[in-house]
User: Fold this.
Amino acid sequence: MDQEPRHQSPGPTTPTDASLAERPLVRIVDDDPDVRMALAELLESVGIDAATFASTREWLESGPAHRPGCLILDVRMPGSSGLDLQYHLARSGDPKPIIFLTGHGDIPMTVQAMKAGAVDFLTKPVRDQTLLDAVAVGIERDLAQRANANAVRRHLDLLAALTPRERQVLAEVARGRLNKQIAFDLGISQITVKLHRSNVMRKMQASSVGELIRAWEAIPQDLRERRP
Amino acid sequence: MAWRLSVPDPATAEVRGDLDLDQMARASEVPDDHRDEAVTETMGAGRAGEDRFRMLIHHTPTPLWYVDARGAGEVFERLRAEGVTDIAAYLDVHPELVEIAKDIVLVTEINRAAVALFGADTATDLIRPVRYLFAATPEMAKRVMVAHFEGRRNYVEQAKMATFDGQVRDVVFSVTYPAPPEHLDTTFITIEDITERLRTEAQLRRLQADFAHAARVSMLGELATSIAHEVNQPLAAIVTNAETSLRWLAREEPNLAKARELIARVAANAQRANDIIQRVRSMAAKHEPERLALDLAEVVDEALHFVRHDLDARGITLLRVDAEPLPPVVGDRVQLQQVVVNLLVNSIQAITQADAQARRIELKIDVDGADAVTLSVHDTGPGVAEPDLDCVFDGFFTTKDTGMGIGLAICQSIITEHGGEISVTNHPAGGAVFRVSLPVGEDSLPDS
Assistant:
């Protein structure tokens, strides 16, 4: 037997300094108790917390996940199929990365799942490293999503402090318009535009125009238009 | 009064028999299985009638023996006088008495059919002590004597008969005793040859079993995906548990406790996979149908392994209600599993084909009185079209695009073979209800 450790715990999944709430949790939904128990053991052997559920209903009833992580789903589960669940999740605003695990993944099913944003579509029996790699990707993707969501939330808070006129100027700047064009469009002087602009930069805590535009664009379209 | 039979037929010209006609007439006055009123009347009509009656007996196609059992009667009288009441126990202690009876009870007359049955050259070969009637089933003699002693009018037993041409035939051996205080020289024995019937029945059973087997193999083919999935689950658990235990062992400080725990699960899942394969193998195997006492709930449990994946994959919920306790039914485990699988597959297809909104199968096992267990399968499919209700169990009847139409025919054939019934109705709330009723039983049926 190979005496070398074959697998290092993925870095981001074992943040020793993070609070429990920031520790990744992988949730496994499979109707076969032996299979879900085996998967949980595998994850725990590399230091990843796992929770198991016998059905999608059981999982949904457990409430939303506040911890980062991903889902491992058997597509052929009684109750609600994995693909239905993926659709449901995507619409519910809790877009946890999903790793599909199936006894017989047919191609249309795989394509559908991947298009809908699945991390991977794996066939049972799955090799340990294959699954752990997918889990690492899933967790990283979720962490990135969460970081992005946090940034958006922060930008929205900052945006709320802008006056309507400042918001107008910001939208124009983001469109790449020059100060004199903005002044002409809004019927104000260029000096006033410059004044608004520096206020916007300060309120949005942006150190450059590039940063300001990125923050603006990170905010979903419908939220940008909303008046405070 | 002596009577001598003389008929022109050369084949039976040698038949000789002495019979007391007065005795015959007396015997005919009491109701007797072998005589109807017409015959009695004929006999009352005098000598010509008596002759006709004799001719009728002689030519009747049932092999018939007239036996003089007075010798046995005398022995019985003596035993009663000695205070014997349990004759069976007495004969167990004195088996020699049975042997004596075989020699002192005499055949006095036989008919043509009896001669033919025994392949005898002449009728006189059969006019002798009854011993030869018990050659192939010797222990039957005791039971015949017990019934006689106990004053019963009839005794019937399925037995084997060694004939003079060296064959052993299967027969139904019936004795009709005269009621005391009549003389005991008019005991009748009829022997019906059922060898051909049994052979035909055995052949039919074999054909039925072959047919059921062929259908089973074809059914397994259709369920291949489902079965593969069933085996794949424990394999998935085995692979993951084994790899995880390797990880624990590969650590700087190997976690042996964890590895041991996981390896135990590997073994359990390997066993689980093996169980599934055994179930498939017994389904695929050709075997002589057995008759064992079975718990129908267990049969259903096993059958469900074959269709569980199909149910899940098509989003069909199975509701199951078992009455408890269930008396056992007698039958062939694999064939009854086959019936359950067929009925479930049928329901799954009905629901799928109709793309029904409600996707549910209700499986109920119930007790029907003291002597039957029922299984009903109610689906939320479209039900059976009214004109088709009478022919769903016919072979090659199908309303499906891909069906052969043998599933339900096989169900009926198996259930009938088990002495049960199968029927279909449409539920008032929609969907078809298939109902199987099987007789309750403990013992194996005699295997022929």
